[in-house]
Structure formats: C-alpha cells, structure tokens
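Students often ask why inverse folding is considered easier than folding. One informal answer: many sequences map to the same fold, so there is more than one right answer. In these notes we will look at a single instance of the problem. The structure comes first.
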C-alpha cells in the first residue's frame, strides 16, 4: 500500500479487548455485598446496560462512594498483552490506518483510559454511551441511541453505529480499503454482518463472541475474514500483511 491509497479503518472494543478486564464490572467491588446482591438480580433481567449502570451509580452515591474511587480503579486496569505494541505499530504506520473505539461502556471511562495510557493522539474519535460527572448521581449516563436491532442491548447496537459512521464518511468522500473490528463480546458481532471479503473480524479466543461464532456456527454467515486473537501480537501479524 502506498500513502495515496485508501486507509484501513480499524475499530476496537474497549472492555476485555483493549483492557484486560471489564471496566463496569471491576468498579462494582466498591459496593456492599447487600447492594451487589440486589443489583445482580436487576442485571439478570435488564435489557438496557446504560440504564442498569445508572442504577449502579445511584447506589454508589447512597453508599458515599466518590468519583475519584471509581476513576482510580478504571485507570489501573491493565491493557491486554501486546496492545501497547499493537498501538505502537498503528502509530508508526499512521498514514495507513484510521483507528477508532466503539465501546458499550461510556465516554467518561474511555476518556480516563485514553488519558492514563497516553492514547489521545492515536484515538482522535471514539463512540460510547455518553457519561459525565454529576453531583446528584456521581456519574450521569445515557444510552447512545435508539435502534431496531433485536439481538443487541437497547442502549446500543454497534452494527447501526458502524453503518452510520461509514455513511457519514462516504458523504465526506472517505472510503476504506479494509475494515477491521477487534472485540470479544456478543455485541461485537453485528458490525461484521455488513463486512465484505476485504474486511476482518477479530474475536478474542474463548470469549463470548468466539464461542458464538464457532460453537453456534455464526462464522459461516459472514463474508469477512475471521481471525481469533489471544493477544495484540496476533493482530499485528495479520494486519501488517495489508500494508
């Protein structure tokens, strides 16, 4: 590929992909066991993750948990193995890539993670459920959008997000040579349904997306290339062949 050719759009999930843990889950340890038991029952029946997390923050406020405690935990989640090297590879070849993040968490956590890991220059654009500090509930979170997808959480469908992003880019005369999505969860499947033979889906090995693809046969429904990953080095080995 030369610098005059189209860029590669490379999209990342955050929790259990960029990060080694789930940011929403790890902060729950701040809550008392009694409240955790109550929230677990609500989580099992919730179909809107943003609304559920708003309940979490309300309970945290009631238990006098501070936003600084939440921030410290989120900032201290380690990146997955090989992702520092993966980001360095993309940065070194930035003329070939447009990296973005599409996360089911929230924009406040994303900002904290990017700031802590000095990734703001790499990820100039990210999409997630809007969230901001709020005196009343510690953090105010809203669902990203409304959608008609019947397989995704009500707060967000990444398939719809990717379609709208690509349409926005097309209207600005931007198209891509390849599209890559790197994730781990079931909500990372929808984008891949619109991918073609030039595109790539990277499911994390033995995580829910991988198991759905290979144990339930969903991989046979896709036109794109599918490569499982256990660390960032595996991803580097594949994408460097596109340059």
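Output (designed amino acids):
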């Amino acid at each position: 590929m030369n610098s005059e050719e189209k860029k590669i759009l490379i999209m990342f999930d955050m929790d259990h992909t960029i990060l080694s843990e789930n940011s929403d889950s790890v902060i729950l340890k701040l809550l008392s066991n009694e409240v955790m038991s109550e929230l677990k029952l609500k989580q099992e029946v919730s179909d809107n993750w943003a609304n559920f997390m708003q309940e979490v923050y309300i309970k945290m406020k009631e238990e006098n948990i501070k936003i600084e405690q939440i921030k410290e935990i989120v900032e201290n989640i380690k990146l997955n193995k090989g992702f520092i090297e993966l980001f360095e590879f993309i940065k070194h070849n930035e003329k070939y890539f447009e990296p973005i993040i599409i996360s089911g968490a929230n924009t406040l956590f994303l900002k904290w993670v990017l700031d802590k890991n000095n990734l703001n220059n790499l990820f100039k654009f990210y999409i997630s459920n809007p969230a901001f500090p709020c005196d009343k509930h510690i953090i105010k979170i809203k669902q990203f959008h409304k959608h008609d997808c019947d397989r995704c959480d009500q707060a967000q469908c990444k398939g719809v997000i990717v379609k709208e992003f690509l349409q926005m880019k097309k209207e600005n005369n931007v198209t891509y040579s390849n599209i890559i999505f790197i994730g781990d969860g079931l909500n990372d499947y929808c984008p891949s349904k619109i991918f073609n033979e030039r595109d790539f889906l990277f499911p994390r090995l033995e995580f829910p997306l991988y198991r759905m693809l290979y144990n339930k046969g969903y991989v046979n429904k896709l036109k794109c290339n599918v490569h499982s990953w256990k660390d960032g080095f595996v991803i580097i080995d594949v994408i460097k062949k596109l340059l």
